[in-house]
Amino acid sequence: MTSTKAPGHATRSSTAPGLVLRILLLGAVLAVTVWIVPVMIGQRQWLWLAVTVLAALGIFVLYSTRRLVPGKYIFPGTFFLVVFLIVPIVLTVGYSFTNFGDAKRGTKDEAIASITSNSVQQTANSRRQALSVGVTGGFTASEDPADYTFFFVDPDDHSVREGSSTQAATAADPDSITVTDGRVSAADGFTILTAKQVNEVYGTLKDVGVETSDTTALRPQGTTQAFEGTKTLRYDAASDTITDSISGAVYSVKKVGTSEYFVDADGNRLPQSWLQGVGAANYVRLFTDSSIGSQFLRAFGWTLVFAAGSVLLTFLVGFALALVLNDERLRGRRIYRSVLLMPYAVPGFISLLVWSNFYNRDYGLINQTLHLHLDWFGDPTLAKAAVLLTNLWMGFPYMFIISTGALQSIPKDVLEAARMDGASRLQATLKVVMPLLLVAVSPLLVASFAFNFNNFNAIELLTGGGPFPADQYTRGATDIIISMVYRAAFGGSGADFGFASAMSVALFVLTGILAAVQFRFTARLEDIS
């Protein structure tokens, strides 16, 4: 009788902590879900809402029972795969069919609010209020006005209001703010900027209007004050038009290019638009615009040369060094190997920044040491050679490591048999060692090619994509496709995320096709034994 109860008692005791932990986990998931779902609905984040709800349901189904044990182990990896890989791909593809970019980010209502609020003019009766600017998290000099929240203190009744370029001013919660000397000095969830920090981004903030009514809005005037002025542009919802109260011009919705704007009778448009679907217009522009298409093809050609050249050069140097240091007759092999691994131990971005100084035309180490006067970053050919040379320095230790491992796995009797058959050392290396080594390292070479195909850091930190032609900034001589995408998304002509997303999708497809071709080619090596 005792022996039959003991196991049950032991099982109950051992599972009690697990049961408590399970209850706490499910309770935390439920609390987070209940809190975040309304927020996502309010912000219309439908994709993330679906991911959140499905993840919560999956957690409750899997971890509320002792069954479905395999799913408990598979779920975490699957969840992070979806969040960090699948969802970004879906979002990128989705944005590629929109006009998402500068002045085209929010809804139409937000665009109307921004247009009318930014038209605020100061009058003789405009009242001034103390201004504080806050950001969520740490301060970065963002160029998006929507990233800033404004706090206003009325000097007469000391009331405090808060708002932004997309949110009308409302009364602030007195328990969440601290007012010092008539200005908001602290606010829960915000970092209040200093006057110096506000001055750094004043070019972004000076034209922002925070709506207070249908006809008035608050607008910054200096780093510590704001005035409440009158809107000169007013929206009429019945006719879906915006009227300029000073000039009398009426702006109605018309399509300009692929996006809709408010345009007057003379064809003058207001600067703000809104997020819209444009179908395949971005892809049509990519493949039919002669200027963009030619730049994309040139970038694609250089990307192939850069990726293939980097893999070939690093592999040849790494393999040659591994072959030499694999000779047991060589003394001090461990010391030599340790020295050769040093470039691999230095963080890549540090190596790139150091090498960028080496190529300086006036005081760079290369020109001074070799008594040269080469403008490495001013000549397209020299700039490309500099990129390949630097990538060789950074990449050969990796190839040296994998080649050393592959060489040590080749049985010595294979080489001895080749030598007995009359093969020279060179013949044995090329016809025996190399094929056997490629069987092991071919997948790694394919992975290295794919990595260099999208090696943004090697271009941006070394040459910045340059040198650039005098007439355009879309693509420089050393820009590969991924850095060209970056310049399209964040370039000097303004952000164009929709078009950059279309280029990213094209790059993703090209990378996949090239990888498939390479794997198909390397599969033939499987017959080598």
CATH level 3 topology of the largest domain: MetI-like fold
Highest-level CATH class of the largest domain: Mainly Alpha
The CATH architecture of the largest domain can be named as: Orthogonal Bundle
Helix content: 40-55%
Number of helices: 18
Largest sheet: 9 strands, antiparallel
End-to-end gap:
63 Å
Rg for CA atoms: 31 Å
Estimate the mean pLDDT confidence. 87
* CATH homologous superfamily classification of the largest domain: MetI-like
Estimate nothing, just give the exact number of structural domains.
3
* Number of DSSP-assigned strands: 15
Low-confidence stretches: 1-14
Shape: globular
Report the β-strand fraction as a percent range: 5-15%
The secondary structure category is alpha+beta
Function: Part of the ABC transporter complex MalEFGK involved in maltose/maltodextrin import. Probably responsible for the translocation of the substrate across the membrane.
Family: Belongs to the binding-protein-dependent transport system permease family. MalFG subfamily.
Organism: Brachybacterium endophyticum
Domain ABC transmembrane type-1: 300-518
